Amino acid sequence: MNITADTNLLVRVVVRDDEAQARTALSILEGAEAVAVCLPCLCEFVWVLSRVYRLPRGEIATSVRMIMDRANVIADAATVAAGLRMLDAGGDFADGVIAAAGTSMGGETFVSFDRKAVARLQTTGMPALHASEFS
Fold first, then answer.
1. pLDDT tens-digit readout, 72-115
2. From CA 95, how far away is CA 86, in angstroms rounded?
3. Do residues 109 and 129 lie in contact, with contact meaning Cβ atoms separated by under 8 Å?
4. Which of 6, 48, 86, 98 is the most buried (most CB within 10 A)?
5. C-alpha span between 89 and 28 (Å, rounded)
6. pLDDT over 70 for what percent of the chain?
7. What is d(CA 117, CA 78) in angstroms, rounded to the nearest whole number?
């Protein structure tokens, strides 16, 4: 069976805060022929691990990489890689995903009022500008 993973399925496998659900989730993920992991799911996954479970940035990045490395996972690898570069640079995974997804849709430059996001994206090599630069 081909499935689309919800965030809570991925979270259970990583945090194992409910052993029965963790075993079930792992069994489902391992048993699926293909597991579609959409970008909003991964953004939410990173947010939950960070804000709810307070896992360190490095552990979160490792968790995302472990998901992406599974042979049966289908995801937008290039966009996830941009999110991981942003996370590794100390920024928000979602900002990297948003910038990369926008680029794939024809956007040339990420624009935000978030100065830190703009600066971190620039350090990863992505074109980004602060919204005040348009005044």
1. 999 999 999 999 999 999 999 999 999 999 999 999 999 999 99
2. 7
3. yes
4. 86
5. 33
6. 99
7. 19
